[in-house]
Amino acid sequence: MKDLLKLDNQLCFPLYALSREIIQRYRPHLDEIGLTYPQYLVLMVLWEKDQQTVNQIGHKLFLDSGTLTPLLKRLEQKHLLVRQRSTVDERVVEIFLTTAGKDLKKEAKCIPQKLIEELEISAEEIESMRNIANKILKSKIVTEV
């Protein structure tokens, strides 16, 4: 019988360490364009679809508004996005990319491919890992609803 309290038998530890490693590998590429990893994630959500609410972005990134708001403020200070209260409901804050925010996508476009090359794993392995991670994350969403 396996000792379930042994570090080598844990699922969470290699995922935690892997997450840290991958984010660390992003750092030099993101430094070149002046972003942190969480800021990059926010911009990726907005590059897919501009003009989203804070809640919509938070839902996609699994972040609450208390974590997301400071990120959005910093991106606004960098003139990459604008935060604006909805004219329909003042409680809702809408996020829009600026021209600089849209233009930054061109500079960031090469980052995913660079990471794939650095990780030295196949596209199939990446897809498999992503599918398993998404399966676990989707089960979290279902249990919270």
TrEMBL record:
Domain of life: Bacteria
InterPro entries for the chain: HTH_MarR-typ, MarR/SlyA-like, Transc_reg_Sar_Rot_HTH, WH-like_DNA-bd_sf, WH_DNA-bd_sf
Residues annotated as signal peptide: none
UniProt keyword list: Cytoplasm, DNA-binding, Transcription, Transcription regulation
One protein family per Pfam: Staph_reg_Sar_Rot
UniProt subcellular location: Cytoplasm
Domain HTH marR-type: 8-138
Protein name according to UniProt: MarR family transcriptional regulator
Source species: Sphingobacterium kitahiroshimense
